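testing teh design pipeline on a random one, pls ignore if ur not involved
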């Protein structure tokens, strides 16, 4: 139907600086975890903490999934424990709990924000509950003041899944500095900044940081670059635990160093696109995405619309029509309670998650990324109008 090339749902924006830094890494002779990973960690901590004196540890890993696993491991989550999270997320948020032999307690979302509902979190707490994993869905901060208060009241740990939330603020403070035990960012190909694959664990807890660093590389108490550069014999190391292989390569970190510098500009562009969509879709039979609190930053990783009852298409038809008009779209997420593994493992039914279920049945994620031109944005606007005009 369209003569223009297909507009994909997501695309990374990789510039000449990123490319030059990767080439420099390749020529340097040090391609795995080394000076660039260290620089990326330092830059990341500075990005979040700014001039803040309180030390913020940033530990680079090869995915957010790895980071979530390491954070929970460092907090001592294990068999017999329960961890509460939202059903409206990607499976990685919850699977890491199962890696450790602990159980996942899924709860419903607040339909206004699509984020985990703090009242339902509190209602799901049992004597076995050890931690909460809030997800800042689409880049909108979860209700962290309420969640942190619940955690304090019940003696629970909090690990934020911030895969969508760079940069996001909550009551003026950047996600990563909110006072949870750890916050985990993702640099997967379609996230707000990318290293291809990658992630970052951020914490103010020096002991937790130390454990994450050891477990990220086989439970070895010195990393390869330390061994290479320090004065003690380079061949000597000690294994203190059965760790994992979760380190970030310098090739990936080379991308991250420059992506991070552009993170604010990328967000600015996505916010501009979201604003254009909000205006253009105001009179369509769509529920528009929830906005951030006044003064707060929404990362706009996703732009999620929900079709109203009076829309001429259901969600599946709507996405088919967008594709026919040359525009990619997706769904975030098929809730965990719908997936065979989670449904069967915990005998879940959709009736227990009415808000997530209703949102899922009506939702579509539209393209929103910094590489989109103004013409691309207008193509999405026209396609959405066209898809909803058809009878
Ligand atoms: C992408 C994503 C993850 C996993 O990130 P990886 O870096 O791919 O491991 C976890 N949680 C959420 C909500 C995500 O969107």
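output:
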């Amino acid at each position: 139907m369209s003569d223009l090339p297909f507009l994909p749902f997501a695309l990374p924006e990789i510039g000449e600086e990123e490319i030059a830094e990767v080439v420099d890494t390749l020529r340097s002779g040090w391609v795995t975890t080394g000076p660039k990973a260290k620089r990326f960690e330092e830059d990341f901590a500075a990005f979040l903490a700014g001039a803040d004196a309180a030390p913020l540890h940033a530990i680079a890993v090869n995915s957010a999934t790895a980071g979530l696993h390491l954070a929970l491991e460092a907090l001592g989550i294990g068999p017999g424990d329960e961890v509460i999270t939202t059903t409206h997320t990607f499976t990685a948020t919850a699977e890491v709990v199962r890696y450790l032999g602990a159980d996942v307690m899924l709860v419903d979302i607040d339909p206004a924000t699509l984020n985990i509902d703090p009242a339902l979190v509190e209602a799901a707490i049992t004597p076995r509950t050890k931690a909460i994993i809030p997800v800042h869905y689409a880049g909108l901060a979860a209700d962290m003041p309420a969640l942190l208060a619940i955690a304090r009241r019940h003696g629970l740990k909090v690990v934020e899944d911030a895969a969508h939330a760079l940069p996001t603020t909550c009551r003026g403070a950047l996600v990563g500095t909110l006072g949870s035990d750890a916050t985990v960012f993702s640099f997967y190909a379609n996230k707000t900044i990318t290293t291809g694959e990658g992630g970052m664990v951020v914490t103010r807890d020096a002991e937790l940081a130390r454990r994450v660093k050891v477990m990220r590389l086989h439970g070895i108490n010195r990393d390869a670059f330390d061994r290479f550069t320090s004065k003690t014999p380079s061949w000597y190391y000690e294994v203190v635990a059965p760790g994992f292989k979760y380190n970030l390569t310098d090739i990936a970190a080379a991308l991250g160093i420059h992506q991070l510098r552009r993170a604010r500009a990328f967000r600015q562009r996505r916010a501009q696109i979201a604003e254009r969509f909000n205006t253009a879709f105001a009179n369509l039979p769509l529920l528009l995405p929830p906005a951030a609190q006044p003064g707060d930053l929404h990362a706009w990783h996703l732009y999620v619309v929900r079709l109203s009852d009076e829309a001429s298409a259901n969600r599946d038809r709507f996405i088919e029509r967008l594709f026919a008009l040359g525009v990619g779209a997706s769904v975030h997420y098929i809730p965990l309670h719908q997936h065979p593994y989670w449904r069967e493992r915990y005998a879940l039914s959709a009736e227990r998650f009415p808000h997530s279920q209703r949102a899922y049945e009506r939702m579509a994620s539209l393209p929103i990324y910094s590489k989109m031109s103004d013409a691309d944005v207008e193509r999405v606007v026209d396609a959405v109008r066209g898809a909803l005009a058809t009878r």
